[in-house]
Amino acid sequence: MARFYNEMHAGDDSAPASTRAHYQRYAQWLAEQTGEHLQRQRAEADLSFRRVGITFAVYGDDAGTERLIPFDIIPRIIPAHEWSQLQRGLAQRVQALNMFIHDIYHEQRIIKAGVIPAEQIYKNAQYRPEMQGIKVASDIYAHIAGVDIVRAGEGEFYVLEDNLRVPSGVSYMLEDRKMMMRLFTELFTQNKVAPVDHYPDMLLDNLRSVAPTGVDDPTVVVMTPGMYNSAYFEHAFLAQQMGVELVEGQDLFVNDNAVYMRTTRGPKRVDVIYRRIDDDFLDPLAFRADSTLGVPGLLAVYRAGRVSLANAIGTGVADDKSIYPFVPDMIRFYLSEDAILNNVPTYQCRKPADLSYTLANLPQLVVKEVHGAGGYGMLVGPASSQQQIEEFRQRILAKPEAYIAQPTLALSACPTFVDQGIAPRHIDLRPFVLSGKQISMVPGGLTRVALQEGSLVVNSSQGGGTKDTWVLEK
User: Fold this and answer.
1) Is 0.90 surpassed by the pTM of this model?
2) Hey, which of 58, 159, 164, 460 has its CA 20 to 30 A from 429?
3) Is 116 a domain residue?
């Protein structure tokens, strides 16, 4: 069995003496709790989440369209010095990614320098030629980034992927904290846990900071595809928390080179749109003509610098898995620094040598579609049958450029309250990085947990759950 880093306990056992320093106070409290008490608290949390409507949609799921994301009552705890390192690495990475996106839509220095092959950009499904030469406020493209972090080996952090289009999950981070504070008030008097509840204020300030030039008191809205979207709860939640309007495309219109919102008091000018709609559906005049979700003429207003979109159109080119291997190169190219946070070693199947290695080692590798998301379109070799491996082999051979491969990391594990009691389960972390006049983030993020024993897939669409993430203050 592969060794993995245990977030709570050092060594191979879970004896009290092996508890890591930053977990000791919590571990002492946990040892005093009965299984019945923890079970009651978990049941109360589930009931409360269901009552509030904290669910997500599972497309194609025969069991129904709405599902509760399981919430685990044992937190993931990060000491201050580790968070400081993560924070510096995340800020560095997102700064370089924003510089990269600006560059490819303007001077294209990184392509001319031969750092990234031109075809990796121009043939990327997320590249938007319509954005070429457009000036965006403060040169910021990824205003909200969700960067997936894993810990492996002896405890080193790695970036697994960058989510720059419409990253989701921050509402669960906030609701998980609210639930923990309600169920276990005493823990927050015993432990100096850094707060996260100010995230909506930070987000609103960040969005207001990138308003079009000359707008002193910008009107911000959250734009949703509608109530049938899998993350609709989050769209409504963030609009409510920021105190701004939640709108759909039909609530907006373009007139006189500006975007307006229909209100009971008449049209109101909109300056910043936090859009949770994919590029293709934003403007039927510019992208998909059959889209009923967008706003006709929106791109023209955007090109004129009369409205700001967060995140910017065309940002997805930088979070594609075929671009991911080049992020350390971007950091060196734009910032003249080495990456603080390492990538996972990655084989690009478009390269003959990498393809040969991947095909020869499929049972040991994780293979992902470069445009895939949500845990779909991937092969976890060690957890797959011979038939599944062979079927995936044919898919790779048919279109090698559409896949990357990575070693199967022994993701770190955190004690988790499951039906059998407390047991280790594998986790990752998605901090949310805000870019505007400055780069900022709340301490922590969304910890996702693979609830099935031995599973490495933490995505909620694949049966994963969430935990509260505590960053301890010094």
Assistant:
1) yes
2) 58
3) yes
